[in-house]
Design a protein that fits this description.
Helix 5 links the parallel strand 5 (91-95) and strand 6. By secondary structure, the protein is α/β, with parallel strands linked by helices. The chain is 44% helix and 15% strand. The protein folds into two domains: 1-73, no CATH class; 80-176, Aldolase class I (TIM Barrel, Alpha-Beta Barrel), CATH 3.20.20.
Length: 176
């Protein structure tokens, strides 16, 4: 579970992140804070996910320590993923693979990038951007270890069912 809030003020972000940390701890779910290593530390998150303008991986590692996860957005550039892993990122994320209502102007990535990253990198690879149960299978088959989704879950009539359908993409891929 990743907490991502671009518009809330600092107090609301802290309150929301604390509430999510409590829930994720209760249910044994990994909790990542987007963009803000200080907030991740403040709520005892399992890690932070950094975009291009969110600070250096080394600084986040120094703040959070060796045991917390650090992920990095690499957009559609394998070179950024190489740099991120060399700097100590625990996972890398690529996208947007499809049109995203969350980031409509995001750069486009192709599934072939996942195949290339999977062959070259020794860290988990995450696919981001406009992903649904209908289009996610091709990303899993291309090498995605995880799918980052927002709309496919939180605009679904049944969030639990939507999550199960997405999880099924991984079990189906392993069976083939």
């Amino acid at each position: 579970m990743q907490y991502r809030s671009k518009s809330a003020d600092a107090a609301l972000r802290l309150s929301q992140a604390q509430a999510l940390r409590a829930l994720t701890s209760e249910h044994g779910v990994t909790f990542i804070v987007n963009d803000d290593a200080q907030l991740a530390l403040a709520v005892d998150a399992d890690g932070v996910h950094l975009g291009a303008t969110d600070g250096e991986i080394a600084a986040a590692r120094a703040l959070l320590g060796a045991d917390r996860l650090i992920g990095a957005s690499c957009y559609n550039q394998l070179a950024l993923a190489r740099e991120a892993t060399q700097a100590g990122a625990d996972y890398v994320a690529f996208g947007a693979f499809f049109v995203s209502s969350t980031k409509p102007e995001a750069v486009v990535a192709q599934p072939a990038l996942l195949r290339e990253a999977r062959r070259e990198l020794a860290v988990p690879v995450v696919a981001i951007g406009g992903i649904t149960a209908a289009n996610g299978a091709q990303l899993v088959q291309a090498g995605a270890d995880a799918l980052a989704v927002i709309t496919a879950l939180f605009e679904a009539a049944d969030v639990e069912l939507a999550a199960r359908e997405l999880a099924t993409l991984f079990t189906q891929a392993r069976a083939t």
